[in-house]
Amino acid sequence: MSFMKIATSALAITAATATVAAAQGRDNVQIAGSSTVLPYANIVAEAFGENFDFPTPVVESGGSSAGLKRFCEGVGENTVDIANASRPIKDSERETCTANGVTDIMEVRIGYDGIVFASQIDGPAFTAFTPADWYTALAAELPVDGAMVANPNGNWNEVNGDLPDADIMAFIPGTKHGTREVFEEKVILQGCEDSGAMEQILTINGGDEDAAEASCMAIRTDGMSVDIDGDYTETLARIDANPNGVGVFGLSFYENNTDKLKVATMGGVEPSTETIASGDYPVSRPLFFYVKKQHIGTIPGLKEYAEFFVSDDMAGPDGPLAEYGLVSDPELATTQSAVADETTM
Amino acid sequence: MTKSLYSADARTKRRNAAERRFKAYGAAAIGIAMVALVILLTSVVTQGIGAFRQTYITVDVPLPEAKLDKSGTRDMAVMSKVTTIGYAPLLRDGLVNAIAEAGIQTDLSEKEIGDLISKEAAATVRNRVLAHPDLIGQPERFSLLADGRIDGYFKGRVTMASAALDQNTSPEKLDLADKLRDAGIMQIKFNWAFLTAPDASDQRPEAAGLGVAILGSLYMMIVVLVLALPIGVAASIYLEEFAPKNRWTDVIEVNIANLAAVPSIVYGILGLAIFINFMQFNQSSPLVGGMVLALMTLPTIIISTRAALKAVPPSIRDAALGVGASKMQSVFHHVLPLAAPGILTGTIIGLAQALGETAPLLLIGMVAFVRDYPEAYSSATGLFGDPSTALPVQIYNWTQRADPAFVERAQGAIITLLVFLLIMNTVAIVLRRRFERRW
User: Fold this and answer.
1) Does B367 touch chain A (CB under 8 A)?
2) In chain A, what are the domains?
3) Of the residues A12, A93, A151, B282, which has the fewest C-beta atoms closer than 10 A?
4) Which residues form a coiled coil (chain B) (predicted)?
């Protein structure tokens, strides 16, 4: 065969590829979104593929915002069917969805996730924190004698005499993570109010509450607080290399690494699935996934997957998700019937 | 002062010394590169070699009809109602029986004994039973995966001290594992499943394999080869042999060189916009991945092909033209065959580069959790249209997982990828050595 023939046939194959592929369809559920929800979605997808005649759903991560953005791109086989999110969908995102024709969205709450504060197991004894400790340690500016000054604290025992004598070195989630918002609201802002700093700031700025909140949640940038833009494995690596480091982790990540990390109580409450379910542990948040109802019926297995996810076998208190670290939702039965009825938002 | 050829003068000595110093610098440079390479390889191999060995538990699993087939008619619809959650207690019973038969004493509860078996094992048994319904009724011997922590213990990743702190295992379980191994119920075997099995969820690191990723990478390489080689070679031949040398061809040449240096993520953005959003190809499919990587590989192939064509001496072309061949005959009968080894080398190096690329695949949905083997062709999804992952993507995915056992898997995957790259680069060098002509 001469070279010309080879070249011609190769080009013919190329052309054929293009035509054949143009008739593509899809028979699997496509999911994207939060990296916090990802391990749970993986566990459910795996069990779903094992036990049902549908193909195993394909799960991508990339973050809640990225997932919801793709979810809202439109209706059709080349858009995702489900977006995982570690926060509720925003109004602006719903508007985008509606503008692109994604009008029927089912919101499914799968349970709760705890955010824990952990340090090296052999490191200094960080065993009890309060939100006020974290605010005083990490705020960019603190109110001192009626004026805002740059945070002077460099050691945990300057923040609180009960804390160990160790330099402040905190590894917190970067701003693109949903976890960061929860951390700011439930730890830093709470600590700002608890420590009385909020009132002082309000006196200083003349009662502007929005500005006071913003000032509370401004994190110092002098190197004592490090934003981690990657995931918890990166935080763990930093903690491994830094005996004084304290990191912010998801409860499930901590539970898989209890031989390397020790966890601290927050406001005197030990983080566990029980204390989070009861609401005693203050730093937790609900996890969600959003289903494009318009795809039910077109994409095989979509509704079955959603129902299987919230079934007692999976998301119940004794299911594999709870075993992995998800805090089971006490109102799971309501969610189950809402999914069965395809109730939209 | 007399001059002698036997004793070097000061200037010659200086020149010789400079040369010796230069050689030493060169040797030092190579030395540093080698040390870096050795450190990298040792770290990868020591951490990753464990992925190629795996702990298995061999037990007789009871398969009672009352549990697995309530109808007693071997009706598939009834049998498939029993999920893996229903199978798990049977495996536990099998292991408990085996422990009792071997006369091993343990204080662990039955549930804790069950934790020694991987969660994947229930699926193994269920699939076999559904494929062979006649197995139901009597116990059947299975080789089941052991839990990741137990496997880690035999590989040295988990120790008694770390197990005492670990919520997912305990020193008593490791102790029992030691006894099971002595009794021959637990064995360590070569882990073929690592190369063939699909990915597994975060609860089953012991079951995770590269099967889907290797298939996905293979499909993508086929697409890259089929698209990039003919287009690249045709473009190079035209530019090198036929195109007039003017401002336009200069502009094209600069642009090709530029494209070769564009960050690969840019091709991903392009792929998302054109192939997925505009042309409506499937996300996560090797076809789109291959097309994106083909775009990325094209400049490499064009540049190396042009260099290979340029290296063929003009006398060959002149001779062909001189005996009456047309321009096209001279190119296809004489120049191209002589340039072929260079073209192949460039193509293989381009493919090797594409094989190790992750960034563009991020945007087209290939960085995903995929369990089903992609088919090369299916009527529903078309050619190479099934979702799949790729080798570098799998490494990236595994490094993000919480369970420490995935570190070993990720390093094992790096070893696999390095072996593939080594093979491709060796082939490139062998081809060049064997067929290269010098003039």
Assistant:
1) yes
2) 24-112+286-340 (3.40.190.10), 114-284 (3.40.190.10)
3) A12
4) none
